[in-house]
Amino acid sequence: MINKNELFDDVLGGREIPKxxxxxxxxxxxxxxxxxxxxxxxxxxxILHPKLKVKxxxxxxxxxxxxxxxxxVEDIEYVLGIKPLSEK
Amino acid sequence: xxxxxxxxxxxxxxxxxxxxxxVELTRDIAQTKIDGRWWDLTDVPRSKRKKENDNHWNxxxxxxxxxxxxxxxxxxxxxxxxxxxxxxxxxxxVKSRIESDEGCVYVDLLSTAPRNRDWLVDKPIYKGIGTxxxxxxxxKSFELGFNGRVxxxxxxxxKTLEFYQNRRFQKVVPxxxxxxxxxxxxxxxxxxxxxxx
Lengths: 88, 197
Prior knowledge:
heterodimer, A: 88 residues, mainly alpha, extended, B: 197 residues, alpha+beta, 6 helices, 9 strands, globular
């Protein structure tokens, strides 16, 4: 439910973030091409949680079927304790 | 158009919420519905429009810069009138300033459409677009495993301070000293989600 008292509008941002504020434990690959929401979810999980130590290359991603990808994402999210908000 | 979520937004004239959508913000949408549309406010004097921080922002360019970057996301609120009521660009590679070993969703750009700004126009159409975009960022943070942590840096305005403090954002070290850094902790994100139910 929207609380009428918290309705707020703003304009913010537009400044470059100094490197000190960025995470130094992740590397964003410019070579990964994602073509679906599921691919994006999988790649983000792996990049944003490097402690999981999962490695794959772009050709690995292309060769995986949708059920395998879905299962892979679910396994990662289970390990990380990520649950849909409806289950919280 | 890639619809990400169905949401509710507050329509002022009817004093009630109506259905809207969070959509992926593409260059085409930015060009036709933001850059080529938002500042077409004939009732607002040019001098007043120019005072707005984002008057010169080029959303088409900004979306173009980040559209292929996996750790960025560009989203917008699409109303039933098929207009973009607000837009936001977030990034996921920023450190939490509360828990330095953790990540967060960082709000890089956020704007409510000028026609919805009560400080700019006499009769804004929608209210609370900023809140809905921020709440989407919180949900995204949970989805990415950041436990709801969301950070941003804002100008030091009393109304802004009041909102973020009421919403339990904590003051953190800002990226530039003339700004105020705010971050929603994991604990306070949980509270926001539970209050929305």
